[in-house]
Structures are given as C-alpha cells and as structure tokens.
Amino acid sequence: MSDTAGGGESGGVVQEAEADNEPPLQVPPLLEGDGLDVGETSEEGVPPSAKRPRVKEEEPVPEQVAKPVKMHGETPAQAVSLQEDPAPPAQRTGEPLQCEDGPVEEEVPVSVGGEEECHQNGDRGHDAPLEEGEAKPEEEHNGSESADSPSEGQRLGLDFTQNPQMLTGSCTEYSNLPENYLKGCKWAPDGSCILTNSADNVLRVYNIPPEIYSYNWDCLPEMSPVLRMAEGDTIYDYCWYPKMNSLDADTCFLASSSRDNPVHVWDAFYGEVRASFRPYNHLDELTAAHSLCFSPDGTQLYCGFDKTVRVFYTDRPGRDCEERPTVVKKQGQSGIISCFGFSPCQSVYACGSYSRCAGLYSCQDGTLLALLPTRHHGGLTHLLFSPDGNYLYTGGRKDPEILCWDLREPDKVVFSLKRNVATNQRIYFDLDLSGRYLLSGDTEGVVSVWDTQTAPPDGNEELLQPQLRFPAHWDCTNGISIHPFMPLLATSSGQRQFPGPGDSEGDSASEGEGGEAVMPPQETRQDNALSLWWAGPLGPAAEESQEEQSTEVVAAEA
Questions:
Q1: How many whole angstroms from its chain centre is CA 319?
Q2: Distance CA 26, CA 40 (A)
Q3: FRET partner for 153 with CA separation of 20 to 30 A, picked from 40, 142, 169, 362?
Q4: Mean pLDDT for the stretch of residues 286-312
Q5: pLDDT tens, 57-101?
C-alpha cells in the first residue's frame, strides 16, 4: 500500500514526465499482449505447463474482455455455489466480488445492443419509474433470504419522505494516515460491492455486509475493505467495467489513471494489474489521462487529455489508440477534458472540460455535434445524462450550481440546482434508476435531494428547491452513489485541510493552560469516512423493533 498522500486535487494540471514503469504483477488471462514483461496464468489462475506465445503490441488480440457476459455455472474463483449454499457466502479476501445476495443475472446486460443500460458514471438507462419498482425483479434468490429481506423485495423504491438511515461505514481504514480524505465512491454495476478512492492513492473494494439483506441492522460491524489496489501517484480518475458481474470473474475489473503513470486495468478479484494502456504525447513521452470512461458496451476506453480524447480498445492493451482532437482549426472545446458521460439511448457522448463548457460528440468518429454555452463559474468536474437521454446535468469546481440542459435545444438551461461547493475538489452527484431524484453532497457535509419531476415544464431556468436535505458527514461530502437496484446510498467524505494562522507546531496559541496541547480546529472538522445509508421503506422487523423501543421509552417515562 502506498503511504504517500495525494499531491493535488484530481483533475489539476500536471507536468508530463516520461515514466513507463509498471508493477511486476502477474497478468490474469484476459488482457494479454500489452507489452508487459510479466508472467501468464491459465484461466484457473494456475501457471500453465507451457508458456503461450508472446503477442506483439502492434498485433490485434482476440476479443476477450469485451465478450458477452456468460452467467452459467460456477466461475473458477467462486468456491461456493449460490444455488446450493443455504446461507450468504462469507466475505473472503481472495473473492471480494462474490455476490452476497444471490445471483444478479438480471442486473447485467448479456448482449451488446443500442438500448442497453449504461451504468457507468451513474447513468442507469431505461427502467420503470420508482412507483412501479426501483429495480428489475430477480428470478432466483438465495435460500437464506426471508420474505422480509430487501433482496426479496427488489422492487423497493427510494423513499425521501424522511431522512435516510445510516447503516454502517468505514472510518478506521482512513485514520491511519493524516489527511487521508476520500475522493469519491462508486457502486459496482452489479451492486455487489463499492469502490473508493482516497488521498493515499489506494483504491479499495468493499463488500456489502450480509446482515443488510436480512434487516439485521443492530449488529452491523464497521466495514473493512476486501481488496486494496495501490497506485504510484495521485489518482485522477477511476471507473468500473460497465458489464461487470461478480458471477463471471472475466468481467470483474476496473480502470484507473494516475499522475506520470499509464492507465491501469485492475483485476477486481485479486487486485493485480491485468493490463495497461499507455498514451504518449507528440514528443513520444508518456502522459497521464485526466479522466476515464468505458463505452456502454465495454469495448472501448475513453481517456481525456488537453484538447484531446484518446480512445483505446479494451481487447488491445498497449499504446495503439485513436486520437480525437476537440479543437480543430482553433474551433471547438478547449481545455483539459475532465469528465465523460454516454447517452443511454443514442450514439453520443459528452465531454466536460476545465474551460467551463461541455460538448456533445458522435461515438463513431468523434465529430463535434454541439458545444454548450459557457454558463459555469468553474471547470466542469462531473456530468450525467438522464435515463431518457434528453437532459444533461453538469457541475463544476467552486461552482454553486448544477445545471440541467435540454439536449433537444442545446443552448437552453431547463433549471439549476443550488449546492455549496467552495473547493476545487470534484464533488460528485448521482441520479436514481428512473432519473427522478438527483442527489449531491456539498462542502458542509450536507446531502441534498432534488425531485426533478417538480421542475417547471416551461423551463424558465428557475432554481429548483431540494425536497430533502440531511447532514451526512461533518466534513465535505464529496462522493455519493446510488445502488443499481436497492434503496442504498453510499457517501464519502473529507477534503484537503489547509492550516490557518497559529496552527503550526510549537505555537503558543496551540497550547492550553498548563502547557497541554489543544487539537487544532482543522483536525476537529475532519471526517474521512465511507458511509452506507438505507433510503427505502423499513422492513417489518425494523418497524417492530422501533415500535418496541418506543413502547419501552413510554413505559420508562410512566
């Protein structure tokens, strides 16, 4: 694990340097031929009896990563059959992505098509509205789940008539190093685990505690990561493979980009580097991507650079890529491409840049389709498409507004959402499955929930008031992610603390009476943690326990 803290905020301008050193890790069987001098393993994870021929970097590799998801039988890494085991499998360090609530076949598309859901960056695709169900029904369930469990009621919708209930989280994991603040959290596309990024340049994977599925919330322990993946420097961006399914080990991987390093593809079962994508600039120097996003079908990886987008093919690791400049003949979108988003229903993707604007591009050749007006006060750090593809939500750094754009009229802002963002840090926001609720944290630790269906139909750019605001953390709530099919929220908190006057060591102002040291006020405000929230209706067991507690309180008062 890396012990170095992040050298700067994500997305900051960095100095490019030539560095092509990669960790000497074994490559699991999917992505081969990336030019790394590492060993090879068989599909069962055992070294083969004879080495396979080395594939040159320039030669195409048979498509293996982007193949359709197979969901039959038991994978080599799956030691317990979910159909036969009467109890949820225990968390195992070697199997971090083992699904704990039974098969999730219905949640991951199994074929490549134009109408598939895009789970990347929060886009959920087309689904029934919340009134009809939060998620798709499951055909099979684990034998240990009762009728009261959330997984049995997959159709539970989000309920924001009251504050969400905090279930558990992870705080101790980030307290070993000073100022180890988090930089966002993202649910896996199949909902089996959570991925976090933090200032110590380590990506962590957490499994969902099995007690959540049975409403046994009174004895929830603090969450501990089942996997840690350390990058060499500040992590700029990270993303899940959109067709990730924990029942198929071949699909369990993610990508990350860090300063002065190639784009790494991490195996989410073993924490090793499967492959790398190495972008080079015009001086043939290695350069780091500032943003990452897989295409909805998973066959391509889009990387953002200064006035350029580079597209790598997932089944061809190495340096070969397609370059798509965003500025042609001094016309187009300038600045560093800081975030991506894909339309769930059209072959269109959006790019946000630090030049405070967003552009719409064709997925086929990268042709600029529309350039949205510059309305933000800071560089864009995050954007999302609505599930119907008609609207685009954009947010920037040190910018108090999230703007909703009508893409049928690209120069029109439908409404704006007010939040408190007083930092250059990337503050994520997320949409629920139906696109009705938009959630975002702020620098004060408060999470706001907006009901986009209450927006005025005439679209006169009115400020939409939040339906609910609740304190989630003491410090900045920088990350929020909604579970793909359960009413669960994940939030992450923390920010870089700058010492004020009189906070230096040895200052008399930092000592109390009798020479006792007094904790600086900046440290008292630190809250570096991952939290898990229940944002749905309570189960019968939980309601009964609450009634018993209220009865006991009344009896005690009497």
A1: 25
A2: 6
A3: 169
A4: 96
A5: 334 434 444 333 333 333 333 333 333 333 333 333 333 333 334
Longest dimension (CA), the chain: 81
Torsion angles phi and psi, residue 299, rounded to 5: -85, -15
Which has the closest alpha carbon to 75: 247, 241, 270?
Answer: 247
* Residue partners of 320: CB distance under 8 A and separation at least 6: 57, 58, 312, 313
Tell me what the mean pLDDT of segment 317-322 comes to: 95
Quote the pTM value.
Answer: 0.69
CB 454 within 8 A of CB 464: yes
pLDDT, tens digit, 9 for 90 and up, residues 470-520:
999 999 999 999 999 999 999 999 988 776 655 544 443 444 444 444 444
Beta carbons of 492 and 196 less than 8 angstroms apart: yes
Q: Is the pLDDT of residue 289 over 50?
A: yes
Question: What span, in angstroms and rounded, lies between the C-alpha atoms of 358 and 369?
Answer: 11
Helix spans in 41-107 (H): none
Task: Note the helical H segments in 468-520.
Answer: none
Other beta carbons within 10 Å of 460? 9
Nearest to 403 by CA among 383, 426, 379: 383
CA dist., res. 137 & res. 134, Å (int):
9
Which DSSP helix (H) or strand (E) runs through 524?
A: helix 521-524
Q: How many helices (H) and strands (E) does the chain have?
A: 2, 31
